[in-house]
């Protein structure tokens, strides 16, 4: 059973940066895509970013392109989300996700394992 633990959330002013980390209990980074999703107040969970199992490809929701970067460290079983130029609309609980199988990387039902989430709050 894969367990995921997010960290790195907090309160930051608009224009600032945060780096989220997601530590996995098993070494899965060479085989599985991983992703970040978020849920903002009053909104449904939405896709943020995903990285392929190989680490050679990634994709992002349009509103974070150019500002967020997803990456991974296989030796540490950790995936990161570097968030720059943060905006108040980025305020949400951010969740790390992992999977055993395949499927669209930007779709929540493709993932089998979820972290508990880490709160990101961006003030204006």
List keywords for this structure.
124 residues, 7-stranded mixed sheet, 4-stranded antiparallel sheet
Please render the helix and strand layout as text.
Elements: E1 4-7, E2 10-13, E3 18-24, E4 34-39, E5 46-51, E6 58-60, E7 68-73, E8 78-83, E9 92-98, E10 113-114, E11 118-123
Parallel strand pairs: 2-11
Antiparallel strand pairs: 1-3, 3-8, 4-5, 4-9, 5-6, 7-8, 9-10, 9-11
Give an overview of the whole structure:
- By secondary structure, this protein is mostly beta strands.
- Helix content is 0%, strand content 46%.
- It has no helices and eleven strands.
- The strands form two sheets. Strands 2, 4, 5, 6, 9, 10 and 11 form a seven-stranded mixed sheet that branches. The protein has a four-stranded antiparallel sheet with strand order 1-3-8-7, with no helix packed on it.
- The chain is globular, with a radius of gyration of 13 Å.
- The N and C termini lie far apart (40 Å).
């Amino acid at each position: 059973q894969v367990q995921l633990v997010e960290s790195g959330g907090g309160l930051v002013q608009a224009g600032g940066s945060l780096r989220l980390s997601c530590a996995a209990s098993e070494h899965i980074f060479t085989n599985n895509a991983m992703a970040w999703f978020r849920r903002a107040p009053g909104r449904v969970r939405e896709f943020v970013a995903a990285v392929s199992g190989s680490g050679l490809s990634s994709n992002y929701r349009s509103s974070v392109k150019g500002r967020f970067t997803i990456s991974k460290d296989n030796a540490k079983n950790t995936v990161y989300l570097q968030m720059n130029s943060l905006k108040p609309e980025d305020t949400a609980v951010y969740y790390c996700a992992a999977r055993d199988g395949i499927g669209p990387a930007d779709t929540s039902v493709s993932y089998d394992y979820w972290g508990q989430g880490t709160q990101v709050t961006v003030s204006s």
